Write a sequence for this structure.
């Protein structure tokens, strides 16, 4: 069983201490919900989890191995959904999803027909977020919510055990939130883990809540 | 953690800086006065260059300092990137304008010397051209360092640039020399001449040492100013932080 | 290799669909060169004398144009984070993006250079050397430029800054690129200059992606 843990994390942005002494433990199939006021470091913590920055002190470990020791293996096991949707205006929705899937080795490069061989793949990703009808629409014609769905489609297009979602429901309509909830439930049922920040709007059954406001107070 | 500890307690460095600074200032002024006296008054004029040889006593040490400062800049940047020592960031930031000023001084004096020697303010001589490129490298560093809203970002980005520039300096020097021999201008009298006479060596060395001491002096002042500015930023952040809570 | 090609293919596709990068670079290249006869007069001997240098300087400035956006658009839309989180070294990602950038801008510059050589009265037997020198030199420009493009992410006035950072570092490529053409025009072998250009390319291949990756990492931190 895999285990994703953080130990006594300290985060410094610029010259400001954002939080200190943060710990978390995420078992297979688990969910971690980050809450807290603006500026308490929800995004910062998710980025540390992804390895986009190093904690000023403390360690983040996967199965007791520091993720900084082998960043590429860590990259291979995670999906990160940040504030930007990374949707290129000149590429169609499908091309956008297919590119990110191909980058993780899970995509179909030569022909779309090949995508049928596995459950994953760009088309599975598009289907999971009801983007089928929009598949050939260029990114520039998509609305903010549709772009976000294209971004989320990566999750289903290439499997990865760890999902790190920063405010995933922003700009989503209620149907899409339900689809995301389903996707997360399926992911967890298969042993996947998810850490997400949210200001509400997405209930996750038996998620562990981590309120970063508590740790910001400790830092000052 | 180091970073926090250090910002919380810069007292150690400040103590050393305060002790060293007057000495550096004294040495800079004393040796500078002696060097200028020997160079401008007590030494004989050159038989070829005449009185204008005296420009060399400023030009040559300034050119040395230009390279010395870039080396210091690269070293401080490497320390800052590898060990994340905040003092190294400040030292690099403090060094850059001093190095740029010395480079500019070398260019200016080179140009002044060139007028009587070459009959023109500027000749695309290999050394002057290399100095000019070095000056651009300094300008790039200073511009990049100041181009970010977050000073920490500027420090990191410019540290990478300083190292890239340092690797490139010998390559640029080599290519400029190659370019210069390819377009050899008609009999350029090389700066410095064939051999340096003793009476010229003493003021040259004195001036070089005075410039080094001046560098220490000014860089210490600049680092102290940066530390003070950092404290002000930290106090402002605390003020806004407590207001938000 | 597959993810590497995926990045190259995406960036080339983006460059051609948006269509502006290649076209803008080439248009700038041609216009910049065409200005010189107006500046120095149409005297064929004068043009032949400065032709190689003018073509090189214009190529160098033109290759700067699309450089600013090499990482900038990905940085702004969040794609750069995802590229940095791809299960491969960031240096390889950089190399893929640089290759795509070169295919979209550097290669076309080398291809149209002989046409500008004709306008500048450069002797036609020098054209192969001019093209070879550009083929060896422009990838180095893209690699060095990638470092600058990484450093200016998130900076104010990135475009002007990029020119200030990168142009001094382009000087060696310019010197040996022009020297290859001039030596060939004088009837000597340009081998030494071309070899040095190749050496510069190898050095840039070894160091450029590494430095650019460091620049990108600190920008994303």
């Amino acid at each position: 069983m895999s285990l994703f843990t953080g130990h006594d994390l300290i985060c410094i942005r610029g010259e400001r201490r954002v939080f200190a002494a943060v710990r978390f433990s995420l078992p297979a199939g688990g969910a971690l919900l980050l809450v807290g006021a603006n500026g308490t470091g929800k995004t910062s913590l998710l980025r540390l989890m992804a390895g986009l920055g190093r904690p000023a002190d403390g360690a983040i470990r996967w199965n007791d191995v520091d993720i900084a020791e082998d960043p590429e293996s860590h990259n291979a096991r995670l999906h990160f959904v940040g504030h930007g949707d990374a949707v290129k205006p000149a590429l169609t929705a499908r091309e956008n999803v297919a590119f990110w899937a191909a980058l993780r080795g899970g995509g179909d490069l030569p022909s779309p027909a090949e995508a049928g061989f596995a459950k994953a793949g760009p088309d599975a990703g598009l289907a999971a977020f009801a983007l089928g009808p929009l598949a050939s629409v260029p990114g520039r014609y998509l609305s903010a919510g549709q772009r976000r769905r294209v971004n989320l489609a990566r999750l289903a297009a290439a499997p990865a055990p760890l999902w790190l979602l920063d405010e995933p429901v922003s700009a989503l309509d209620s149907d899409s939130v339900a689809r995301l909830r389903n996707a997360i439930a399926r992911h967890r049922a298969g042993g996947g883990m998810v850490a997400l920040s949210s200001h509400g709007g997405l209930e996750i059954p038996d998620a562990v809540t981590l309120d970063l406001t508590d740790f910001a107070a400790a830092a000052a | 953690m180091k970073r926090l500890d250090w910002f919380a307690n810069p007292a150690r460095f400040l103590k050393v800086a305060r002790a060293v600074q007057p000495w550096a200032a004294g040495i800079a002024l004393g040796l500078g006065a002696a060097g200028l006296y020997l160079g401008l008054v007590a030494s004989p004029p050159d038989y070829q260059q005449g009185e204008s040889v005296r420009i060399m006593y400023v030009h040559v040490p300034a050119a040395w300092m230009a390279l010395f400062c870039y080396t210091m800049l690269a070293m401080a940047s490497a320390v800052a990137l590898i060990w994340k020592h905040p003092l190294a960031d400040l030292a690099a930031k403090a060094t850059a304008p001093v190095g740029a000023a010395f480079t500019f001084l070398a260019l200016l004096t080179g140009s002044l010397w060139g007028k009587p020697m070459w009959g023109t303010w500027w000749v695309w001589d290999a050394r002057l051209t290399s100095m000019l490129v070095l000056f651009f490298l300094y300008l790039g560093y200073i511009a990049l360092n100041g181009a970010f809203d977050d000073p920490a970002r500027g420090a990191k980005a410019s540290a990478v640039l300083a190292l890239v520039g340092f690797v490139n300096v010998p390559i640029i020097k080599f290519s400029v020399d190659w370019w210069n021999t390819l377009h050899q201008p008609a009999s350029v009298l090389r700066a410095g001449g064939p051999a340096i006479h003793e009476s010229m060596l003493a003021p040259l060395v004195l001036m070089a040492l005075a410039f080094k001491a001046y560098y220490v002096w000014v860089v210490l002042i600049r680092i102290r100013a940066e530390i003070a500015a950092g404290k002000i930023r930290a106090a402002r952040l605390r003020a806004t932080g407590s207001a938000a809570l | 290799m597959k993810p590497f090609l995926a990045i190259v293919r995406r960036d080339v596709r983006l460059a051609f669909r948006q269509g502006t990068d290649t076209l803008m670079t080439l248009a700038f290249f041609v216009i910049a060169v065409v200005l010189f006869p107006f500046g120095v007069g149409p005297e064929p001997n004068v043009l032949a004398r400065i032709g190689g240098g003018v073509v090189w300087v214009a190529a160098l400035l033109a290759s700067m144009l699309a450089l600013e956006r090499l990482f900038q658009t990905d940085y702004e839309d969040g794609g750069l984070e995802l590229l940095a989180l791809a299960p491969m070294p960031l240096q390889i990602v950089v190399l893929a993006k640089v290759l795509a950038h070169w295919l979209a801008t550097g290669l076309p510059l080398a291809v149209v250079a002989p046409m500008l050589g004709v306008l500048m009265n450069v002797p036609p037997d020098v054209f192969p050397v001019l093209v070879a020198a550009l083929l060896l030199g422009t990838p180095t420009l893209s690699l060095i430029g990638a470092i600058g493009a990484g450093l200016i992410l998130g900076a104010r006035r990135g475009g002007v800054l990029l020119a200030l950072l990168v142009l001094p570092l382009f000087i060696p490529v310019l010197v040996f690129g022009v020297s290859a053409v001039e030596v060939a025009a004088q009837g000597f072998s340009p081998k030494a200059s071309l070899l040095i250009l190749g050496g510069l390319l190898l050095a840039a291949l070894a160091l450029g992606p590494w430095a650019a990756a460091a620049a990108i990492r600190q920008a994303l931190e």
Notes: Chain B touches chain C through 30 residues (CB under 8 Å).
